[in-house]
Input
Amino acid sequence: MCNAKKGTCRKKRIIIHQKLKIMAIVKESPIGVVSGKLGQIAGAKWKGINYLRVIPASVSNPRTDKQQRQRMKFTLMSNFIKPNRQFLKTGFKNWAVQMTPANAAFSYNIKNAVQGTYPNFTIDFPNALVSRGDVPPALNQAAASTVAGTVLFTWTDNSDEQGASVTDKSLLLIYNPGKNQAVSFSELATRVDGTQAVTVPHSFSGDLVHCYMAFSDQDVIDVSDSKYAGAITVA
Output
């Protein structure tokens, strides 16, 4: 009970509320006195008053070396995955268990395709996978560019391998890290063809690009692991 004038008493209550960040005073409760906390709501007692208050969220962003290393890897891999998302929908679809194909590719590559030491991390392009599966991969794959705006992929027919087929279809990807763009091509050639020329944007001319190829079965139910076909400069 407050013995002071009503106005003075009210001001004191406001000050108390502000200091304790009180959300509500509990006068009566069907479950008795409220105590403890639930999430960011806490029940407590101060000078005989039962009250509820909000616990301020803990803002913690320590910049430890480990966290900075992980953030740099995360950013690096995110930049690689983003322009390749469309290709990854096919390439990693069978590994997308309770996640998107892009997330499945991110998870694999951040563990297996980052090289260097902090702060000089880079993508290990030859060890990166943009496709993953049980179909036999390409053999002796290579890429070259001698005609303006054109990239030529070549490979050896290995359709006689167990699990391979003459009807397996090509999956080709060209990634331009300088522009962080990618172009992809699917089902333009079969395993027995051994070669496929594709056209890239004119803006790619003079740029270094990384080339990958894989195969899918005839119905595109399963795919092969991708194989790195090389880093080339587009004519």
